[in-house]
Amino acid sequence: MDKIIKLTANENFYGCSPLVNQAILNHLDKVYLYPDYQQNTLKIKIAEINKVSASNIMLGVGSVGIIDAIIRLLVATDEEIITFERSFVAYGQLSERYQKKIHFAPLDHFACQTENIFPFLNEKTRVIFIANPNNPTGTVIDHQSLKNFIRNVPKDIYVVIDEAYLEYVTDPSFPDSVQLLEQFPNVIILRGFSKVYGIAGLRIGYGIASEKTATFLENHRLPYAINSVSAFAAMAALDDQDFMKTCVQKNTIEREYLYKGLKNAGYNVIPSQGNYLFMYFDTEYEKEQVHQKLAVKGIMVCNLAVFGQDLSLRIAIPDREVNERILDILGVPVQVAEDE
Ligand SMILES: Cc1ncc(COP(=O)(O)O)c(C=O)c1O
Predict the structure, then answer these.
(1) Percent of the chain at pLDDT above 90?
(2) How far apart are CA 192 and CA 194, in angstroms?
(3) What DSSP character marks residue 171?
(4) Closest Cα partner for 244 from 256, 253, 236?
(5) Which residue has the higher pLDDT, 325 or 3?
(6) How far does residue 67's CA lie from ligand 1's centre (Å)?
(7) How far is 28 from 158, CA to CA, in rounded Å?
(8) What is the per-residue pLDDT across 109-120, written as a single tens digit (0 to 9) for each?
(9) Residue 204 C-alpha to ligand 1 middle, in angstroms?
């Protein structure tokens, strides 16, 4: 049996920085102590990297912890949420859990067009979630489009810009969301440690918002929710920017390699700005063929039907060796890189 290679959840194929492992080991004999209640040291570090003040930072048990708090605390029972169809599933799942009405704006050929949100906007709308890059399609909204959109949204509606994959973006038109927050205090930015920083299992994420919103959400966080091991690991992850950049560089090369290989072989695949590729099919049969061919060789990719998103698969970008195996399994001739 081939070794199982899990490409289902957009984790960092290269793991995490050795500094993170060391930080965890260094902390092992102190886990009997409660963690820092406020986590100010971590917040200051996050604030420095993002060029904001620590009072703008909020922490969560993963960025889903903050999504949960936003839906639970900022949206009243009779108020509404808008996001895009084919976006991060947690927006819909958590809205349903808390019995908040959510609308799903359509995509235009798998891209998020902000104009498609307006027909769903009404006096009950309280929060709009925009994943940028979008998961699972990997498409991005550019700075000017996002700015124009936020300008036209009433100021009492929170626009949540979820940038879980920010570091992987290479498109120069990608928004400077911190600048948007400076202009529009109703913006909430979500970022995290689960993707390029490689500590998804430790469940820690952060958001950047106006001081008022960040303070409110921080004050409502479960006491001691941010455990000490995760906090030390997150700080170590931020300290190793070289590791992060190396992972981004490899991802950029391998994302292009896999995209071109699949595209040239006639598969429907969307150019991605994240660490994953979105493939779509005309029939369930064609999708299952690809899914199964990879699965029997131990390569697990995400069948998006599990999220109610039919006829599509999402593949987290692996390294060259696994990419070549994927292309080989799918009958794609191996490409010779230009520099080889
Ligand atoms: C767009 C998006 N936002 C948030 C998350 C959740 O990240 P975390 O592990 O920080 O909760 C994910 C995870 O896949 C995601 O794709």
Answers:
(1) 94
(2) 6
(3) -
(4) 236
(5) 325
(6) 9
(7) 40
(8) 999 999 999 999
(9) 10
Is the CB of 163 inside a 6 Å radius of any atom of ligand 1? no
Q: What is the pLDDT of residues 16-47, one digit of tens each?
A: 999 999 999 999 999 999 999 999 999 999 99
> Does 317 sit in the ligand 1 pocket, CB within 6 Å?
no
How many Å apart are CA 17 and CA 242, to the nearest integer? 9
Ligand 1 pocket check: which of 88, 132, 189, 197 to mutate, most ligand atoms within 8 Å of Cβ? 88
CA of 1 to the centre of ligand 1 (A): 31
- In angstroms, the Cα distances linking 303 to 43, 67, 276 are 36, 24, 13
Parallel/antiparallel/unpaired status of strands 205-208 and 187-192: antiparallel
Mutation probe of ligand 1 site: the residue of 195, 202, 275 with most atoms within 8 A of C-beta: 195
Find out whether 66 and 205 touch, Cβ atoms under 8 Å. Answer: yes
Local structure of 220: helix, strand or coil: coil
Closest among 283, 270, 265 to 329, alpha carbons compared: 265
Question: How far apart, in whole angstroms, are the C-alpha atoms of residue 220 and residue 69?
Answer: 8
Tokens, residue 185: 């205090």
Q: Which one of 137, 162, 203 would you pick to mutate in the ligand 1 pocket, going by the greatest count of ligand atoms within 8 A of its CB?
A: 162
pTM higher than the cut 0.85: yes
- Whether 340 shows a pLDDT value over 80: the answer reads no
Segment 60-100, tens digit of pLDDT? 999 999 999 999 999 999 999 999 999 999 999 999 999 99
Q: Residue holding tokens 């960040």? A: 214
C-alpha distances in Å from residue 19, one per residue of 60, 82, 114: 22, 39, 40
Q: How many CB atoms lie within 10 A of CB 39?
A: 27
Query: What is the identity of the amino acid at 299?
Result: I
Q: Are strands 268-270 and 205-208 parallel, antiparallel or unpaired?
A: unpaired
Tokens of 259: 């995209």
pLDDT at 119: 98
339 pLDDT above the threshold of 50:
no
